[in-house]
Amino acid sequence: MLVVSSLLNMIAKAKTFTSDKQAVTAIEYALIAALIAVVIIGAVATIGTDIGSTFNTISTAI
User: Fold this and answer.
1) Cα separations in angstroms, 35 against 8, 28, 41
2) Are the beta carbons of 48 and 42 closer than 8 angstroms?
3) How far apart are CA 49 and CA 39, in angstroms?
4) pLDDT tens by residue, 7-42
5) Distance from CA of residue 34 to its chain's centroid?
6) How confident is the model at residue 2 (pLDDT cuts 50, 70, 90)?
7) How far apart, in whole angstroms, are the C-alpha atoms of residue 39 and residue 37?
């Protein structure tokens, strides 16, 4: 019974949280920041591979 009441309490708090406009804005900003982070990580991984290839080519030529 405690689990059910805890679950209902969490659902009520979630409804309150989503109805709060500042909370919704904070969630939107968090999602945007996460998307930017994923793009940066992808770009750095790609650039890192390209730079590694360049250094390998230079070291082979030397």
Assistant:
1) 32, 11, 10
2) no
3) 16
4) 788 888 777 765 666 667 888 899 999 999 999 999
5) 3
6) low
7) 5
Rounded to whole angstroms, the maximal C-alpha distance in the chain is 74
Residue 18: its pLDDT value, please?
59
**Whole-number Å distance between alpha carbons of 41 and 60:** 28
Q: What is the DSSP string of the chain?
A: -HHHHHHHHHHHHHHHHHH-HHHHHHHHHHHHHHHHHHHHHHHHHHHHHHHHHHHHHHHHH-
